[in-house]
Specification:
Elements lengths: L2 H60 L3 H27 L2
């Protein structure tokens, strides 16, 4: 074989090896960046779950459900009706 071809094959071999090394380096950097992003997402998800748990605990303390509120109002109105009925009956008596 001609030394010209040997040199070109050798240069091609070095270029392929360098390309593989560069690809490997680039892939490693991309995977490292993805891993950092994944860790940030996991941390964010944990924070959201923690806040959701805290909200589930504190929400019933500060807010009343609509059906509970309606029931309480109905009971208050019934008590007021009874009071007014008693007052009306006392007013009617001489």
């Amino acid at each position: 074989m001609n030394s010209f071809w040997i040199e070109h094959i050798y240069l091609l071999y070095i270029a392929v090896i360098a390309g593989i090394a560069y690809f490997s380096f680039s892939l490693r950097r991309a995977l490292r960046a993805f891993d950092v992003w994944r860790e940030q997402m996991e941390e964010t998800i944990c924070n959201i779950k923690e806040k959701q748990g805290n909200l589930r605990e504190t929400l019933p303390i500060y807010y009343v459900r609509n059906h509970k509120y309606e029931k309480d109002i109905r009971e208050i109105k019934e008590m007021l009706d009874k009071i007014f009925d008693k007052l009306d009956s006392k007013m009617d008596k001489p």
